Amino acid sequence: MKYKLIRILDVAGLQVFQPLVLLCYGEEPRHQLKQIALYIGTPVLVMAACVWMWNFLGPRHKTRSGEVPTPWRVVEAYDGIVHFHNREYTKLADYEREGEAREEALRKAQEDLAGLDQAFLSLADEADGVLESLAEDDPSAPEAASTQDLSPRKIAEQRMAMVDQKVARLAGEKIAPSQHLVDLQADVYRHRQALRQWELQQQAEGLTSGDTDRRVAYVDQVRDHQSQTDQEQAHLQQLREELAKVKQANTPEVARLHRNLSYLQQQAEFLKQRINLLTDGSRAEKLATVGTELETAQADLATAQGAELFVAAQNVLRQEQRLARVAGSRLSTPPTFFDQIATSLKCVFAGFLIATVVAIPVGIFCGMSRVVMASLTPLISLFKPVSPIVWLPIVFIIVGGFIEKPEEAWVQPAFLSSAITVALCSLWPTLVNTALGVASIDQDHLNVARVLRLGLWDRLTKIVIPSALPLIFTGLRISLGVGWMVLIAAELLSSSPGLGKFVWDMFNNGSSETFAQMFVVCGFVGIIGLLLDRIMIVCQRLVSFDGAPSGL
User: Fold this and answer.
1) Minimal CA–CA distance to 434: which of 475, 405, 406?
2) More confident: 46 or 201
3) Which residue, among 524, 517, 530, has the nearest Cα to 488 in the 3D structure?
4) Which of 268, 186, 259 is nearest to 229 (CA)?
């Protein structure tokens, strides 16, 4: 068993974990502990130090979307992404449920919705406690509206509105002196600027047309006036931003209540949508409704005569078409984060496959023929440095010429353009490494092939490709990594529904929550890239005997 585990780790390129296996079997514990400390402990410490620095420095850097999210905020953002994904797929399943499964899901959703009433009431009680604590600083209380005939949700929302009013009143009282100082500073700067401008205008009236030196000095004075004005405006802007932060500041308890209220509101809306999809909005109910209308139309057709018969026949056909559409319908939901990951993987593998089909044959011919190598080297050198940002619009225009009706095409132009862009940017490492591998084959092997009078196909499959396989896979590993990096940029620009579009949408949103979700994407891109590289190592070691070094 020990050797099987070691073999699996070796094939997967994870030899770093071999000391753990050997330690479990008691082989040289001291040596294995040193290896573990060196190759596992040290990287873990470095990663922990990076996370600590991120957690320490992140909140201290302010952006237009707020502070840089800490690792824990990023984890919360990931939980939100997973929660959204589960909700969307739950709604998809609810739309398609039938029979007892639908009745059971409906009963459970109704119970959950009823259970939220108690959660709303508990939150309202917590809000009352916060109001009592704030009353110590401000005895006056906001006028409470009647809660009679209000739902628990409305009561909780009303209590939170009262808390917000109280907090706003207290904040206004605290910042009133600061607001007065800011207004005074603004008046001082305004008078200074007016005075400097008046003095400059007076000096301008005393200047003559031939007094060049005084005119140059006057321009310098105007420049100083503008510089001082800019500094004063910047100082005022800084004071106003600090004042705005004080105005918007909430106590941690109030912020927590707002988060809980938002979560409960979202959960209530989700359960209402589920109940709708499990009742009138389900596919089964829609099929029953359309089926009843079809039966009515068929009954009308059976009794219709004359001109009414034609109208009745058309109505039957319409109901039959509608029934077919409903039977094959699927609930329309936005793509989730994991759906976009799947789309990106499909796109990168499509582009990688195109690149491989082109690069390996061309590389083999380049390695076998000096003429082909000399002919294609200028083209390779010319197109290899071209950026995906340049390729994408060109490919998009060309693909658009072949697909006149994108809505009816079997593949979307944005997806196909991204895949072709990935292929154009990632085929060069495979092509170059394949040509190098073929050109480096031992001449004795080729001489043996000539002596045995092997045909071209036998020579390729028995000598050329097996001998060049290590370098071919090296090129494939590099190409797949390049393709994965290129893909995100291509999707971002082409609006293909993948990770690139997710990043662009989050960037345009510009909130602190979406900022944290962009960090989640960054982590997933790195993890997926690492897994793709490991997959290529496993494939190489399964078909070759060269050891397939996995070092970075």
Assistant:
1) 475
2) 46
3) 524
4) 186
Hey, what's the torsion of the CAs at 50, 55, 60, 62, to 10 degrees? 90
- The span from the CA of 272 to the CA of 106, in Å, is 10
Distance between CA 293 and CA 289 in Å, rounded?
A: 6
**For residue 144, what pLDDT is reported?**
52
Residue 350 tokens, joined: 């499509």
Beta-carbon contacts of 258 under 8 Å, excluding residues fewer than 6 positions away, are 160, 250
**Token code pair at residue 431:** 């092509």
Sign of CA dihedral 302, 308, 312, 314: positive
Confidence bin at 148 (pLDDT 50/70/90)? low
Please choose, from the candidates 170, 231, 225, the residue with its C-alpha nearest in 3D space to the C-alpha of residue 203: 225
Tens digits of residue pLDDT in 104-125: 999 999 999 888 888 998 988 8
- CA dist 25 and 54 (Å) reads 38
496 contacts 353 by C-beta, under 8 angstroms:
no
Mapped onto helix, strand or coil, the DSSP state of residue 43 is helix
**By mean pLDDT, which of 75-79, 93-97, 444-448 is the weakest?**
444-448
Rounded Cα distance, 168 and 158, in Å: 15
The amino acid that residue 308 corresponds to is: E
**φ, ψ for residue 139, nearest 5 deg:** -60, -30
What is the rounded distance in angstroms from the CA atom of residue 443 to the CA atom of residue 221? 82
Q: Which DSSP string do the residues of 308-336 spell out, in sequence order?
A: HHHHHHHHHHHHHHHHHHHHT--------
Backbone φ, ψ for residue 63 (5° rounding): -130, 180
| H or E, element range at 277 | helix 252-278
Nearest in space to 509 (alpha carbons), one of 77, 87, 56? 77
Distance CA(257)–CA(163), nearest Å, equals 10
Q: Are 36 and 20 in contact (CB under 8 A)?
A: yes
- Pairwise CA distance, residues 391 & 383, whole Å: 10
Q: Which among 536, 415, 531, 419 is positioned nearest to 476, based on CA atoms?
A: 536
HEC profile for 472-540? HHHHHHHHHHHHHHHHHHHHHHHCCCCHHHHHHHHHHHCCHHHHHHHHHHHHHHHHHHHHHHHHHHHHH
Helix, strand or coil, per DSSP, at residue 115: helix
Contacts of 364 by beta carbon, 8 Å cutoff, 6+ apart: 434, 435, 438, 460, 464, 465, 468
DSSP H helices in 369-442: 370-383, 388-402, 413-439
* Residues shown for the chain: 552
257 falls in which pLDDT band (50, 70, 90)? confident
Cβ-based neighbour number of residue 418 at 10 Å: 36
Is the pTM above the cut of 0.85? no
First to last CA, the chain: 29
